[in-house]
Amino acid sequence: MKRFRMVYYIKMADVQSGGAQLTHVSSVKGEIGLYGHHKHGLTVLTTTVFAVGEMAGSGVLALPGAMAGTGYVGILLNIVCAVVSAYTGVLLGKCWLMVMNRYPEYQEHSRYPYPAIGQVTYGKPGRLIVSCAINFTMFGASVVFLLLGSENLQSLVKDLGKDISFCYWLFIVAGVLLPISWLGTPKDFWPIAIGATVATSVACCVVLANIVKDSHTVPPVFHAPIEFKPFAFALGTICFAYGGHPAFPTFQADMRNPEKFGVAIFISYMIVLLMYLPVAIAGYMVYGINTKDNILATVSSGPMQYAVEILITMHIFCSFIIVINPVCQEFEELLRIPTHFGVKRVIFRTVMMGVILFVAESVPHFGAILSLIGGSTLTLLAYILPPIFYLKLCSMTGDWDKVDASLHQKFACFEIVLVGSIVGIAATYSAVVSLATSSFSTPCYINSDASQ
């Protein structure tokens, strides 16, 4: 068990001016120390719930289709990707612990922990790269969540005999999400994270039941041999499904005991893998090459399909605030908006919601753009930057106990960065090809019926 030790130092400038100032820095042998714990912060359990709620959802719908591109090798790929993602998530948590340990100003609550890691390791360029990647990824995901929620509600209401334009649903959903977006940091909306996790968990069970029901009626299916292009595209989808890293440091910064973040990440990835694998395997076994990108477009219609649409919509509503929150916190820090609830926060986040709504109304089908943004920047944030930042922090020297990365850690980090770069390039290429070969829909504010 690692022992704590207190480090006190005297600022020499104060000594020379005649008044020595004693400053306390929490330090430790290695990576873990006494940090600015939040008395009412997130526990390991609530952090786990946040991580599961942020990651699970889209993977449930997309992974069966990805299995059609990878074949049964996809089972191994899912396991490997979950393990690697958990490992880089733990590395990211260690990076934040080292930053707090070495720089006292970060021991208080930080609104932008991931960019701060980039700042400490590679200066302003490092911070800028992380900030841009997070903002593109999370803002893009927020737009798509708004689009998916609106599409689901339009489909459900249409089945009841009332056809309301999708473009109008965007306004309705944005109006419902607006008050939720005013909440401050993850510790302020932990019940929403529970809602997202529960909704997705139940949706997995219902989808699996629907697939099992279909297995008795669908004809024998064909499982195509593996080809490079579908395989590479599917690999990008699998990696994307396990990449919750943009929001991870925000969760850790709100924890009562940030040093326990690794435990929460390990548990969360075990849960997500157990949610994903049964649906992905069953979907591929039953539908084969007929499995579409969205499993809901493949399963037979009926009460179970409608139930899943409702549950996924609930997940989207709950996850929206989790996804957009890191973007809001960083811009609020830049604009010097107070951390407590107030008029400035309400105004800023209302404007942010307006921008999200405008983009959704401008590009009613956002899939290819999200693939471009998420496939490139999310790969960067989840698989490339955490190992690079960790090795950099281990190599840095200063007024702190040095942390040495072992040989196997260095090898693992280099390998993850290499493979992550290849996957990121493949995913970005696929998205660019998709954008180049498809046309955009007419914006809603030009034709409110054009998107459907």
Automatic annotation (TrEMBL):
Q: Which InterPro entries match?
A: AA_transpt_TM (IPR013057)
Keyword hit for Cytoplasm: no
Q: Is the keyword ATP-binding assigned to this protein?
A: no
- Tell me the leader sequence span: none
GO cellular component terms, alphabetically, are:
vacuolar membrane
Q: Which Pfam families match?
A: Aa_trans (PF01490)
Residues covered by the Amino acid transporter transmembrane domain: 41-429
Residue ranges spanning the membrane: these are 42-63, 69-92, 128-148, 168-185, 192-211, 231-251, 263-286, 306-325, 346-363, 369-391, 411-432
Q: How does it sit in the membrane?
A: Multi-pass membrane protein
- Compartments, as annotated in UniProt: Membrane
Designated name of the protein: Amino acid transporter transmembrane domain-containing protein
Q: Tell me which species this is from.
A: Lymnaea stagnalis
Q: What is the lineage of its organism?
A: Eukaryota, Metazoa, Spiralia, Lophotrochozoa, Mollusca
